[in-house]
Amino acid sequence: MRDGRGLDAGGDRPRFLLLGPVRVQRGDDSAGLGSPQQLAVACVLLLNAGRLVTTQQLIDALWGEEPPPRSVGAVRTYVSRLRALFEPGRPARSPGRILTSVADGYLLRVPAEDVDALRFEQAVASAESGTAEGQGALAEALALWEGVPLAGATGPYAEAERRRLAELRLRAQEAWLEGELSLGRASDTVAELTALSAEHPLREHLRGLLMQALYRSGRQAEAFAVYTDTRRILVDELGVEPGPELAALHGRMLAGDPDLAPAPHAEGVSALPLTPAQLPIDIADFTGRSKLISELSDILRAPDSRTVVISALAGIGGVGKTTLAVHTAHRIRSDFPDGQLYADLAGAGPSPTDPATVLGDFLRTLGVPAREVPDGSDRRSAMYRTLLADRRLLVVLDNARDAAQVRPLLPGTAGCAVVVTSRARMAGLAGVRAFDVDVMEEDEALQLFATIAGPERVAAEPEAARQVVGVCSRLPLAVRIVASRLAARPGWTVATLAERLADQRRRLDELHVGDLAVEATFHLGYTQLTPEQARAFRLLALPDGPDFSRASAAALLGTDEYGAEDLAESLVDAGLLESPEPGRYRYHDLIRLYARRQSERHEDPKERELTLHRLMDHFQATVRCASRLLEPNDVLTGQLPPTTSEGCTLETPEEAHSWLAAEHAGLLALAEQTVRERTGGPRTAVDLLFTWLWLIEARMYRRDLERVLTAAIQAAGAAADLLSEIRARFLLGVLGYLGGDYTAAEAELRSAAQLLAASDLAEGITRYGVANTLGVVLSATNRPAEAIPLLEEARTYCSDNPPGAARTLANLARAHLAAGQPEQARETVSEALVTARASVNPMSIADTLYQFAIVLRLTGSPDIAAEHLREALVLYRRQQRLNFEGLALARLAECNLDLGELPDAIACAEQALSIGRETNGAYCQGLAQAALGFAFVRSNQTERGRSCLQEAHAIFAGINVPESATVLSQLDELAAHEAQKEPTHPAR
Q1: SS3 sequence, 422-480?
Q2: Sheet strands (E) in 526-595
Q3: According to a count of CB atoms within 10 Å of the terminal CB, is the N or C end of the chain lower?
Q4: What is the pLDDT of residue 2?
Q5: Which burial class, exposed, middle or buried, applies to 69 when counting CB atoms under 10 A from its CB (0-12, 13-18, 19+)?
Q6: Alpha-carbon dihedral of residues 468, 474, 478, 481, nearest 10 degrees?
Q7: How much is the pLDDT for 320?
Q8: pLDDT at position 271
């Protein structure tokens, strides 16, 4: 054995071994083929012997989607080394005879019988199990195996082929064992079947063979035990019962079926009279979908040893299912030498094609004279399956209505493959491999647009092109239509097209060219709906949110959740709605526009308004339920108008957080839509935000919330709704404070305060909120003398609001501290904590602990302050209040600095800084940078410290807080210290 150094010339012709360690062999002498990546190149070439392999294919095989910069050179090096191993006596510069360069790739001229993996595949494909000759061929094929296939080779291709070959080996083992059973050798198979079943416990066919082997060997009790064990494993591991084949076998055994002996071998069916080629023409400008095409091709190409291979493509109208299926079918035509059948089943239209009609057409195509085509779907299906038995034929069933329409058209034996396209998922087809065809990726949609409209026009206006494919929602049909329109109008620019598509109300009208129209595609599906389904389709599309839950669907439709779910699922089955996860639904953007157009045609405006009002009422009720769980004893929800909906039933804080996270986008979108469309006035939207804003990380959504609130202020002014305007201005002030924009916050809060002062509104909760928040802003900007009266005023509105009282007392303590009254600050914050704990409101407790710790630290008790901050941290994390978690960590870093625990201070500050950046919290980032700066300076890392302090000063100066002066003082000290260390130089 000589590994990797080549073989002497002149020996037997080389044999290539892949079913184990990869090597080349001549006679008794063999050699390895180099490094793992060189082995991978060899595997690609050998498994494609006699076929051109491009350089790009080799690069993809070795590195997938992220090749190294010099991948082409590396491939050439590997190929050159392989030539030397394959033909060791070849002169250095002479062309290879075995491995040759052809165009942009390589061709390995090796007969298939000289590659053990190819010999194995050919033998398995041609062996007829159940006969002595077939059993011998299978045994010889299995004897070629020496271990893990392609051992030593790396890369995505080798991994995929390793799995494929291992699966083929297992199928061959099953076929050989099944043949042994049919030849009456049951006892001889028990040991091997036992071992294979243990290795593959979820493979029911193997388990069934083992049951038969035991049963036919007189070991009936053990056979039944195998079934019991299999059922237990399937239920425990997968939650499913055994399949019909295994269950039927078990039943036959229980009944003592005497016909369990091997069935006599059936003779083959004569050759097909002709080779059909019915595929529609492949479009020349097909674009994208490379990953899906590759996966679909691999599945269809790989014959199943037991049954027909079925793949189903499901997706909305216009997403390109037919184009994809036909393109893939053309790509793999050579793998189906007995032909290709195609039928449009018209499933999306009003008159789906009768399977019996399709079978009649197929039979005549396959050479059956018309007079010999039998009547009835069952008899035609039986003849069809007989003709296709033991053949390698591809069947494309396009535009299927449902599984019932497809079943009679399926071949009955292994070797054939079927592709089904449908707007509905083919869940009712046994053994189907389902693919959901989604819209294109942006780069794919742009490529399709450029291919049709002209690359130069797209290159000249890339941003406008992005806008166009964006408003088409990357739906292939829509992109094709607008690109074709642009191609036919040389006077238009891409920007012209984008402008025409910008108006949602006109967009569907723009999306047509010739006989292609997006609206017509959607209309086919819509006309198949029942009146109840059609109403649901129209009403569920009314809210602006990106998706909606089963409960929201029930609110929109005015029904219970189960009825709403049934209707939504029926729309999913019809391909008019999508379900990204169980219990949630969404429209494709263009389908939503179509549904809304239908709603405008069929629903009264008051009904559409009432539909949105029901959803708003549902959201209001559920947000208030979440508020009661997260802020118990808070009086806010009790001071808002009652709701007619009960909302979702939330029982724990965790459920409340989950619901708020899931519905965040929908809540915000509905609030904005309500304000924009003036449905019910701005009050409902403002009241929703008035409750909801405190339960989320509002800072992270500040811009979106500000946009809605600004529009609400305008709407409130137009409607003379003073309370809504005051509350909206108050919430804008809160957002400004949370975002560190204290100037904007103060302006909005003072406007709200002035409007309240001039009104006679008995709005204790709103007056409390305005006074308290304005006092906090003034205190934070070093104006405690102005803050204290406002905070004292806020206390007067808290007689029945313990959580609010606790927060106000804590804020008042901070103001006393800023005013130079430390004893009063400690006394006030102690009262605040007692009040908070008595309120049993976790959010109020956490906030008060945080404020208490700041006061304690600044009055000389950093150790106790740290304990309170750790308790607050636990609560903040449980409450999922990320920004306050960051602030508490920054304050804990300050305590650690005071206690001289520098490593802990740095660790806490770094965590705080990360959170501050994630939540866009300026103040949190400033505190964290300052703590890091002080810690680094004390650790003699002066330059790192200076850099952090400079960052902190810039942040604090930007939001105008007192901490800016403290940091600047430290920077001045550092500068003075450095100046003293500067050496003096004599004048020259």
Answers
A1: ECCCCCCCCCCEEEECCCCCHHHHHHHHHHHHCHHHHHHCHHHHHHHHHHCCCCHHHHH
A2: 548-549, 578-581, 584-586
A3: C
A4: 31
A5: exposed
A6: 60
A7: 87
A8: 37
- Overall average pLDDT of the 916-920 stretch: 89
For residue 191, give the H/E element and its range. helix 186-199
> Residue 451 burial (CB < 10 Å; 0-12/13-18/19+)?
middle
- CA dist 846 and 315 (Å) reads 49
Domains of the chain are 1-183 (1.10.10.10), 185-260 (1.25.40.10), 290-391+400-435 (3.40.50.300), 442-508 (no CATH), 515-603 (1.10.10.10), 604-696 (no CATH), 881-983 (1.25.40.10)
In Å, what is the CA distance from 440 to each residue of 244, 290, 318, 325? Answer: 38, 11, 11, 15
Question: Does residue 266 carry a pLDDT above 50?
Answer: no
- For residues 295 and 330, the answer to whether their CB atoms sit within 8 Å is no
Which pTM value belongs to this model?
Answer: 0.63
Contact 154, 40 (CB under 8 A): yes
The total number of residues shown for the chain amounts to 988
Among 810, 897, 894, residue whose Cα is nearest residue 852 = 810
pLDDT in tens, 102-125: 878 888 888 888 899 999 988 888
Distance CA 568, CA 539 (A): 11
Q: Virtual CA dihedral for 58, 59, 61, 64, nearest 10 degrees?
A: -160
How far apart (Å, rounded) are the C-alpha atoms in residues 468 and 519?
17
β-strand partners of 53 = 106
Query: How close are the terminal C-alpha atoms of the chain, in Å?
Result: 79
**Residue 780's CB: how many other CB atoms inside 10 A?**
24
From the list 601, 608, 622, the residue with the least C-alpha distance to 556 is 608
The two tokens of residue 101 are 């360069």
Give whole-number Cα distances, 470 to 189, 449, 496, 520, 557, in Å.
61, 11, 15, 21, 30
Closest CA to 801 of 830, 770, 841, 834: 841
State mean pLDDT over 305-332.
88
Is 904's pLDDT higher than 90? yes
State residue 265's pLDDT score: 35
Looking up tokens 């003075």 gives 976
Sign of CA dihedral 908, 914, 916, 922: positive
CA distance 869 to 885: 10
- CB-based contact 238:215 (threshold 8 Å): no
Nearest to 289 by CA among 157, 458, 445: 445
Mapping DSSP to helix (H, G, I), strand (E, B) and coil, where does residue 660 land?
helix
